[in-house]
């Protein structure tokens, strides 16, 4: 269009040429006339003029206030946060939390046991002693290590759904089974093993002291 305008072709002639190449729905003739007038008036680019757009409603003071509320209670929800900022929409609050402050809601990480400072010191001391022995005796020390653990197991463990699967044809009858639950009665099992094999599996009898 800019080239045709530089050749002093009329807007109607330019419109016919564009429609022949790109089809009749590419641009209406009115817009083409506007572009031709702009080029004739001295415009030398085909990009839209920059516009200021809608001003952002998020201010630095608002972001700071939201951050203070988040640090007071990290278990907040957008609904509870909106009670402290009734003049701000929930969508804006979510944008502040997730984009401006880069907060993400994460679950607590599950660990088997919370260790105290004394527990950590003892584990550090044991690990240091083991490294010292390993430096002195090399792999021979591994044969002298016996590990033990204990757990409570049910008297009866029902067959799982995966264990009950069988290879059959699609037209074969399906085996049915009653729903079972784990036995309420449990027993303590102690297991000891070394680097080669299981050394001992002991089941504590009911009423017998450990």
UniProtKB/TrEMBL annotation:
One GO molecular-function entry? nucleic acid binding
Signal peptide residue numbers: none
Q: Which PANTHER family does the annotation name?
A: MARINER MOS1 TRANSPOSASE-LIKE PROTEIN
Protein name, entry field: Mos1 transposase HTH domain-containing protein
Instruction: Please report the organism this UniProt entry assigns to the protein.
Output: Araneus ventricosus
Tell me the organism's taxonomic lineage.
Eukaryota, Metazoa, Ecdysozoa, Arthropoda, Chelicerata
């Amino acid at each position: 269009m800019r080239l045709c305008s530089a050749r002093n072709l009329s807007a109607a002639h330019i419109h016919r040429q564009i429609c022949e190449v790109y089809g009749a729905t590419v641009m209406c003739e009115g817009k083409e006339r506007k572009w031709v007038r702009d080029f004739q008036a001295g415009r030398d680019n085909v990009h839209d003029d920059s516009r200021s757009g809608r001003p952002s409603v998020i201010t630095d003071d608002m972001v700071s206030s939201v951050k203070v509320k988040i640090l007071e209670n990290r278990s907040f929800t957008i609904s509870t946060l909106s009670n402290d900022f009734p003049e701000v929409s929930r969508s804006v609050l979510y944008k502040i939390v997730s984009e401006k402050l880069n907060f993400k809601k994460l679950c607590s990480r599950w660990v088997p046991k919370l260790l105290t400072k004394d527990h950590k010191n003892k584990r550090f001391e044991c690990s240091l002693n083991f490294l010292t022995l390993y430096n002195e005796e090399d792999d021979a020390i591994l044969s002298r290590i016996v590990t033990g653990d204990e757990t409570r197991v049910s008297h009866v463990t029902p067959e799982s759904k995966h264990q009950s699967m069988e290879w059959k044809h699609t037209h074969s009858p399906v085996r049915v089974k009653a729903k079972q639950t784990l036995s309420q009665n449990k027993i303590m099992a102690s297991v000891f093993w070394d680097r080669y094999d299981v050394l001992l599996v002991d089941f504590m009898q009911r009423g017998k002291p450990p």
